[in-house]
Structures are given as structure tokens and as C-alpha cells.
Design brief:
Strand order of the largest sheet: 1-2-3
Helix content: 25-40%
Strand content: 15-25%
Oligomer: single chain
Length: 99
């Protein structure tokens, strides 16, 4: 289901991750034809999506990435470490070349 309000999407995404961190995946995509950013968070039982073509939402998207990656590393300070970086990137569904 698409959520049209960013704050509701962010809250739902963080709650979904908190409820099942081992199974939650986060995928982002960009449609060049429409200029739309599409975000999807799922745990195989619940799927939430957000779609936007607004430049202002990119900063929010970046902050959500930082928040979720910090949670995946069990950090509350918002700083990302290098020790588990590859694991976090893979969990978010992003292909990485980190080794």
C-alpha cells in the first residue's frame, strides 16, 4: 500500500523494522521517465511504499536511510561504523562492492 504522507511512511517503516529486524528489507528505486523516487519496506507479511517526485523529500529520504542503518547497527547516535557496514547495506537490499 502506498502511504502519501512522509511522516506516516517514516513512522510505519521504523515500526516495521523494530517489529521484525531480521526479516525487514528496504528498497529504493528511481524512475527516470517520471522523475519519481519509490521506497518500499517489507517483512514479507506487510508492505509499505512511498512515491514522490519532490526534491524536498530527498533530504528526508537520506535521513531515513541514516536512521534505519543506525538501527541495523544497534546505534542510537546516528553515526555509522565500518565494522558492519556491508551487512547493513546488504540488508537494505542495495548491491554493494564493500569487502
Amino acid at each position: 500500500m502506498y502511504i502519501s504522507n512522509w511522516d506516516e511512511f517514516q513512522k510505519a517503516a521504523e515500526e516495521l523494522y523494530a517489529a521484525s529486524p531480521e526479516r525487514t528489507r528496504y528498497v529504493s528505486g528511481f524512475r527516470h521517465v517520471d522523475g519519481e523516487l519509490i521506497l518500499k519496506v517489507t517483512n514479507d507479511q506487510t508492505i509499505i511504499k512511498f512515491k514522490t517526485n519532490q526534491q524536498a523529500d530527498l533530504k528526508k529520504f537520506t535521513m531515513l536511510n541514516l536512521s534505519l542503518m543506525s538501527k541495523m547497527q544497534n546505534r542510537s547516535d546516528g553515526k555509522l561504523g565500518y565494522g558492519t557496514g556491508r551487512q547493513c547495506v546488504v540488508m537494505m537490499g542495495i548491491v554493494s562492492s564493500f569487502s
